[in-house]
Amino acid sequence: MTRSEDDLERARSLLRSADTVVILTGAGVSAESGVPTFRGDDGLWKQFRPEQLANPDAFRRDPRLVWEWYAWRREKVAACDPNPAHHALARFTLGRDRTRIVTQNVDDLHLRAARALVTEEGETSPAAESHDPAPPLQLHGSLFHVRCTRCNQRHEYRDPVDAESQDALPRCQRCDSLLRPDVVWFGESLDPRILETAGRWCRAADVALVVGTSSVVEPAASLPRHTTRSGGALIEVNPEETPLTTLADVSLHARAGEVVPGLLGGLVE
Ligand code: BJW
Ligand code: ZN
Q: Is the pTM of this model over 0.90?
């Protein structure tokens, strides 16, 4: 057995004997769908770093510029499809009450993979319809939800956003104030209930499977440490080393779409 086959088998064995699994994903899981990562060489947008646009001061200073970035990303994601990693994770999660996905991603590709699976299974087996997929826990919000900057009302919003001028930006139907993307920017707190739930799942997990995150943005980056501190195992899938790599029981240095289907395929009941 080569080293990577050996690692893959060790990861499989950890997952096979686990009762509770938490899957933590980041931008890398969507990279093979064509969604740019934040910190990779492909950069996310023009000359800006994520810290410059994903922050409330940037929105106060120039809401049009920030909306332009989000409008571009919404269009890009809408034109992408879930990749084999999203599909394999959805299949692994379906019907397992004790396996959950927690994502930093604001795209909807985990959700679309889960829905595609239910439709596909529902066609062949009516029983599959009773296994409605649990939606992934989105730590940093959603690209396709907006929130009012004054009255805080939030809702789904899928219309194209015209960011040509400030006057064209979307406004609240209730109080006419500017709407903003319902995402978590730097310096903003994550929803405490969502963070609490993610922490609870991580502490309870026998295995944390971490896929495609640079593990530098807190508090998400520290979540897998709850699992290891509680005696659980850590598996990391990432072509690059991260601050988490030295803590991992198994590191699979490969792209998610190439390794995740093979890792989980044999474990699906
Ligand atoms: C592949 C692949 C393939 C490529 N297959 N893999 C403690 C210490 C220090 C600082 C802080 C701290 N606590 C809080 C902070 C401040 C700050 C922070 O963490 N700063 C650090 C950067 C230093 N955190 C916050 O401000 C958070 N708020 C908070 O904690 O509130 C309380 C508080 C406030 C102030 C002070 C103290 C406490 C909020 C963070 C919100 C992050 N928001 C963003 C934007 C969301 C909306 C949007 O998308 O527009 O979230 S930033 C951006 O980074 C986005 C992502 O979810 C997040 C993580 O990125 P991710 O997913 O890891 O992507 P990349 O690009 O970094 O990595 C991709 C990886 O994939 C790479 O490793 C590749 O190798 C790999 N890869 N191809 C598998 N095919
Ligand atoms: Zn409002």
A: yes
